[in-house]
Amino acid sequence: MTMPLRPDDGSFLAEVERLSEVPVSACFHCQKCANGCPVAYAMDIAPTVLIRLMQLGQRARVLQSETIWVCASCITCSTRCPNDIDLAHVMDTLRRMSIREGSVSLPHVRTFHEAFLNAIRTHGRVHELELVTRYKLKTMTFFEDMKLGQEMLLRGRMRFLPERIKGRKEVRDMLSPPPARSETKSAL
Amino acid sequence: MNVNYFPGCTLHGTAHDFHDSVVAVFKALGIDLLELEDWNCCGASSAHVLNPEAARKLPARNLLIASASRLPLLTPCAACFHRLKLCQDHLNSRPEDHPDARAISAVEVVHVNDLLLQKEILDIIGQRIKLPLAGLKAVPYYGCLTVRPPRAIRHPRPEDPMEMDRLLSLLGAEPVNWSYKTDCCGGSLAMTRPDVVRRLSGKLFEAAREAGGEVLVTCCPMCQANLDMREREIERETNTSFEMPVMYISELVAIAMQLPETRTWWRKHLVDPLPMLKSKGLAA
């Protein structure tokens, strides 16, 4: 596939750097991030290429990539970067930008994170059985890992009833989405 | 001696055995764990993705509860530990983001390994060892979240941590040298990409076996669940047999100290550690 390398006006890179507060433009492509990344094999765009695409203003390719959702947040890239580029943190910023622009390539990963936060909203703590059930119903993957789930139940590794905290409302308020304007302003 | 204790959701759920072994070990060492009143989820794998403000506020609430006393805050969960440390790191540089930033940053957050390695506690463990883990080739596996990012965790050796190596030596075991101490098991993709988990975890089992290991030792409830749950699948998929239990460092401390509770923990493991323990003379 050929890709037009004509840079944009620099607005995409500037936006990523402003929202993440990470100087992505400092990357000189030593490729340590890609070489150390344990999930690079499963990505459609290698981490170091993703950075180059940001530098070149390739907004759609970056925000539609599977890479940003396959990233396991293991933080190996950020740890080894000689220029202190916290790529794992940038991945989070890109995920939110991708959600805002409706270009999420692996929606079930987003669904999982939403189910997780909903679990916290409901009880103040995560009830694993409920989280797994909700996620599986939403993504229609109920039969995947079913045997494993049964074994976890049998071995008493799943709590049947949730724990609820007293400070639920306080916790729920923390999770209420901030107004759209302040989100772009705050440190993402 | 008392410490504040933040178990986190996983230790009250799938990793209840980790909770039990941590409580048993510290009780035997004369340390009471005071569970934080009304603690909440730290946001773990997901708040930082969708809502970065919440990813700071959730751990901040727990830290604030802990700050009421001057005791250290023990959290055995690697993800909770990581989120608490990141919250403190953020508020150190931006105290204006929380009205109680100073109190929150002042809380001493410690992981199980840190606490066990304190000089006085090490001495007590040394005195209490009844059954040295002689000849046990143990593979210390640290994973991601107790070492990274080193900026916030302030880990001196993020690529080659030694805490569990030291503890295992003290217990009489042989900590195995290998190159995958801090490689990711795929924990955060456990639900969404089991294929990636099997590949990453499979690599760990493979490397642990190559290094001559008999047991994988972890200090993270996500790593334990991930590896333990997927081991049989990986064996089937790759037509191989690892027969390698995945145990918590606290479980091994408990065995060496011959705590009576240990027997009740093994059935929680999907890969039963008992045959291995028996073959090493560490269980009847």
Helix proportion of residues of chain A, in percent? 55-70%
SS content category of chain A: mainly alpha
Overall body shape of chain B: globular
Q: How much beta of chain A, percentage-wise?
A: under 5%
Q: What about the largest sheet of chain A?
A: none
Unreliable spans of chain A: 179-188
> Quaternary status of these chains?
heterodimer
Low-confidence stretches of chain B: none
Proportion of helical residues of chain B: 40-55%
- What is Rg of chain B? 18 Å
CA distance, first residue to last residue of chain B: 33 Å
> How many β-strands of chain A, per DSSP?
0
What order do the helices and strands of chain B follow? EHHEHHEHHEHHEHHEHEHEHH
Question: Distance N terminus to C terminus of chain A?
Answer: 33 Å
Give the key terms:
heterodimer, A: 188 residues, Fumarate Reductase Iron-sulfur Protein, Chain B, domain 2, 12 helices, elongated, B: 284 residues, alpha/beta, Glutathione S-transferase Yfyf (Class Pi), Chain A, domain 2, Rossmann fold, four-stranded parallel sheet, 14 helices, globular
